[in-house]
Design goal:
Number of domains: 1
CATH class: Alpha Beta
CATH superfamily: Endonuclease Chain A
Oligomer: single chain
Largest sheet: 7 strands, mixed
Mean pLDDT: 89
CATH architecture: 2-Layer Sandwich
Length: 186
Amino acid sequence: MLQGAQKSVTIQSPYLVMTKDALALFRDMVRRGIEVRICTNSLASTDNLQAFSGYQKQRQTLLKSGIKIYEFKPDPAHKRDLIERYKKLEKGAPIFAIHAKTMVVDSKTLFVGTFNFDPRSMNLNTEVGVLIDDPLLARQVEKSIERDMEPGNSWNAATDKPDRFAPAAKRRKVKLWKALPMTAIL
């Protein structure tokens, strides 16, 4: 599906750790003029520091390849809208994070599943997903991802230096995880 993309690929995944093959595929797409946008968790919002450490090691490489990355804020601007839909959250709003695993290709084909964009999902876990060829539904999901990418809801990984917004303790912990030889199991 990705190799057949003509204009755009929009992805939302809580974890973003690319294999060499995936990075090569995305670099090729960008070289062919395909816009690739990914919304993932920031260090401030992630619940998985090990996976984030793998992403952090790759972030500059991904950005230099032309991929546009947006890191979700733990206190997004559209938090009020989300809380209004789930009244229980008013009493103690949690840190907001992304857990969706969706991809839209050319605003017409949609993937929804359990597949995280990381080697664990590719090599270790049993994952499922569905491809849906429905331009209306695909565009609705893409608009939802785009909303999460807006400046009030996400930081631009290329310009905002999002790690600085995470608590110091979280920054120290991810630095430790980054130092460990875990790439193969992320």
